[in-house]
Design a protein that fits this description.
heterodimer; A: mainly alpha; ABC transporter involved in vitamin B12 uptake, BtuC; two-stranded antiparallel ribbon; 2 strands; 72% helix; 1% strand; B: alpha/beta; Rossmann fold; six-stranded mixed sheet; four-stranded antiparallel sheet; 37% helix
């Protein structure tokens, strides 16, 4: 077992164990905090597919995170009011159905955004993904039917068959299972033919084209898949907070997801997990001491970018190798 | 005489006032190694780029296996069977030599939209890729990342990748560039054997290699082909001696 695998396993166990202990000690707040780590990590796993594996620095992934959230919020609101969604389609409070809808919407919106954005690269790609996300953000703000600037509150958490989702620990376990499934999927896809082509597209797109694989097609599928995972996380995030608002769609959120990946280790399987753990830890601990906790987070980010390009996982487990 | 595999007609490409390709016509026939020589800046690489699809010609036609490929991008041309090597090695630097070749094997076998089977344990990829590395004497370095290979080894790896595509034609842009005399000799022997697999358009400065390998030679000067012929015809052509070979020949 490689050192990185050991570190990954320890992180996975820590993330599972801490809320179990907290729940045992009757501290539901820490369970909810751990759920926040898990859901942010899941969103960043999605971005990691585009950014880490594919080298596509999307500065607009909040769009997909927020879309997933709004799908959950809108479906739940309609179901709560007993109104059909549109054209007689019934709304639902069933989490599995909501997830499918969130993933589908994120993927469908990501395809045209990706198809346009991926014709550019570098700074232009960053700016165009940001522009698309901001368009959706302002659209959400100016649409009063679903709360506009105030967002949408959900009076109860959506339902999962056989689980009491209102309690923190069962909901944590649902999110944790989703994160582990996404990580497994990420690992498998990265090692597949598609994953090889995607990583080659990041390392040298010309080389990939020279053997007959068009980088654009590979990147587009990766971008959409990445958006779908992030959209799934958005749906979970809405249910976690029982609230969805435009802030989920804003560029701060896009930036936060990038920061998570840089903190944890770009392109590493557990990079987003480590990043989310550090981020939420500082948000909570430093945030309790000073309102200006983000200043200190900035210092840490600076240190990592200057001295530890591989992020926390790079520090703990050394250079990755593709054999 | 058999049909040409690659047929270029009146190809033109200008960069501003500079005519990099000025009405080039060229044929590559089965079983041939056709060498393209000329002084620095003659437009040899520009021509290779236009044939491979990484540069778009201003006018003229490029027919490959009887089909006009002028409108196709680089990946589509590669899928038709045009395998190129780069003047400056262009590899997936983080991948091992083996995985660089596996990428070509995977491309040749068809779809890259397969998401589950792991490539490192996929013998349909690893075995053909290893066989190609053995052909270029690089098998011992199969698991070394491309970034850590020596210059000469990277040149060999480029050839292995091209071989793995089982192409209908090779486009090699200075495969010997920067290699020592020993390496050039080995590579010359290797390229010599390839003409039976697919014809080759070879840009090369190493005249020993060109005279040893080429069935035909075209001389490119300022974007124009000033002479085309067999090795002996080119050696004795007075224009060529003046423009290029100079006193060395």
């Amino acid at each position: 077992m490689s050192r990185e695998t050991t570190v990954n396993l320890l992180l996975a166990l820590l993330l599972l164990g801490a809320p179990l202990v907290a729940a045992g000690m009757g501290e539901p707040f820490y369970v909810t905090l751990a759920t926040r780590v898990v859901v942010l990590a899941l969103a960043a796993v999605g971005l990691n597919l585009a950014l880490g594996s594919g080298g596509l620095l999307s500065f607009g992934h909040a769009a997909f995170f927020g879309l997933g959230g709004y799908v959950a919020g809108i479906l739940a609101t309609h179901a709560f009011n007993g109104e059909p969604l549109f054209a007689g389609i019934p709304a639902t409070t069933s989490m599995p159905l909501i997830w499918i809808a969130a993933v589908a919407v994120a993927g469908l919106i990501a395809l045209p955004i990706g198809a346009i954005s991926l014709r550019t690269s570098g700074v232009y790609f960053i700016m165009i993904t940001l522009a698309f996300a901001q368009m959706i953000y302002y659209f959400a703000i100016s649409w009063p039917a679903y709360g506009g600037e105030d967002g949408l509150s959900m009076s109860v958490r959506n339902a999962f068959p056989g689980v009491n989702t209102a309690k923190p620990l069962p909901y944590f376990l649902i999110c944790y299972a989703a994160l582990m499934a996404a990580l497994l999927l990420f690992r498998v896809v990265e090692g597949s033919r598609f994953g090889s082509a995607l990583q080659a597209a990041r390392q040298n797109g010309i080389r990939l084209a020279a053997v007959g694989i068009a980088p654009f097609n590979i990147r587009l599928v990766a971008f959409a898949a990445s958006a779908m995972i992030t959209g799934f996380a958005g749906a979970l995030y809405a249910d976690l907070n029982r609230f969805v608002g435009p802030s989920m769609l804003s560029w701060h959120m896009s930036g936060e997801l990038i920061v998570l990946i840089i903190l944890g280790g770009k392109g590493r399987l557990f990079g987003p997990v480590a990043g989310a753990m550090i981020f939420v830890f500082f948000e909570y601990v430093l945030g309790g001491i000073t309102e200006r906790w983000q200043f200190f987070l900035g210092l840490i980010l600076l240190g990592i970018v200057l001295f530890a390009r591989g992020g926390l996982l790079g520090l703990l487990s050394g250079k990755p190798r593709h054999v | 005489m058999s049909e040409p595999v690659l047929e270029i007609r009146d190809l033109r490409k200008s960069f501003g006032a500079l005519k990099a390709t000025d009405g080039v016509s060229l044929e590559l026939r089965p079983g041939q190694i056709h060498a393209l020589i000329g002084p620095n800046g003659a437009g040899k690489s520009t021509l290779i780029h236009q044939i491979a699809g990484s540069l778009k010609a201003d006018s003229g036609s490029i027919r490959f296996l009887g089909e006009d490929i002028s409108g196709l991008d680089m990946a589509a041309r590669a899928r038709l069977g045009l395998a190129r090597s780069f003047q400056i090695s262009s590899l997936a630097q983080e991948f091992s030599a083996l995985r660089n070749v596996m990428l070509a094997v995977q491309a040749r076998q068809g779809s890259s939209f397969r998401f589950f089977r792991q490539v490192t344990s996929d013998r349909d990829l690893t075995e053909p890729a290893m066989a190609m590395l053995e052909r270029v004497d690089l098998a011992a370095r199969a698991h070394v990342p491309a970034a850590e290979l020596s210059h000469g080894e990277r040149r060999q790896l480029e050839i292995a990748i091209a071989l793995a595509l089982s192409p209908k034609a090779f486009l090699f842009d200075e495969p010997m560039a920067g290699m020592g005399p020993e390496g050039s000799k080995r590579l010359t022997t290797l390229l010599d054997g390839l003409r039976h697999e697919a014809p080759m358009l070879l840009v090369e400065h190493d005249m020993d290699a060109v005279f040893a390998l080429a069935d035909r030679i075209s001389v490119l000067v300022y974007g124009r082909i000033i002479a085309t012929g067999t090795v002996d015809e080119i050696r004795s052509d007075p224009d060529v001696r003046r423009a290029y070979l100079g006193e060395a020949a």
